[in-house]
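Hi support team,

I submitted a single chain yesterday and got back a structure, but I'm not sure I'm reading the token output correctly. Could someone confirm the output below corresponds to the sequence I sent? I've pasted both exactly as they appear in my results page.

Thanks,
R.
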Amino acid sequence: MPFDSSLLPLAQAQSGGTREIVDNLARTPLSQVVTFVVILTVIRVVIYPFIRNRKSGPITTVGRGLNEMLDAFIYAGVFVFMLIRPFGVQAFLIPSGSMWPALYVNDFIVANKAVYRYSDPKVNDIVVFRPPATAQVEPGQLDADGQMKVDFIKRCIGTPGDVIEVKKGVLYRNGQPVDETYKAYSECTDESRQAECQQFRMLTADEKSHLTMTSFKLIKYKDKVIPLNYDDSDANSPSPQRQYSEREQPYHVAAPFEIPDPDEERRAEALPAVAVPKGMYLMMGDNRNNSYDGRGWGLVPREQIIGRAEFVWWPLSRIHRTR
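Hi R., thanks for writing in. Yes, this is the structure output for that exact sequence:
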């Protein structure tokens, strides 16, 4: 998918004024929706006797209009928030560039929650899910029980039984190289917002050649299946060495998976790749050098998967099916 940088400012301008409203509405807790519906129902019950037997007139007209409006809100609350959202579809906001160029920052997507009620995620599905606690990067992302309370969206790269490896940037599934037409290597062009970049450009072939192309596999380490990132210098190091570009971070692994001892790093690197365990899934971002994903924080349990992204519906200039 070619990248047209002229679309990003337009997308941001269109979504900027509605982003918080739509996102907050889509995430309204069910308890608040129930309270809202109950209050409107009480109001409707109270005013109905006053308009039921009254003759036509301004007050009756206003009362009946209010009654119909309350009905519409009540039905919408029940239908959309109590039936469609929990079991059908839900809107989600894209907060980062990890899936660029398939998805831009501030895109609104519709996720199909029903599809995974009768089937399992498949390779290449773009999936909305709740990541493990090891994915935390900011304070406030964990709930009182120490679990993540934010949703991520990535591409499903490995399903149960798949042996996934990345060898110097090339993905292998069950020993066969994969042609990842969706994969991108990019650079942030929004110099004022490096921490939460919203604009990217594709790296040229020459620029890409100066990146440290790291490798990845799942290994069984100390009786646990963990992600291992490695290159010619180190493996799951707390401070991975840059081989070429001084501006890059070759890889980033969650603290529980770091291996601080160099000798232990090499022993871990020598371990064979293992398959994605039963009931687990491996997710990666398309924007491969600008995505903190399953390579760093591990696997996603089946029960934490919410839905499959179907299409971008806002901004209008970005409407398209996701794939």
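A quick pointer for reading it: Residues 1-16 have pLDDT under 50 and may be disordered. Let us know if anything else looks off.

Best,
Support desk
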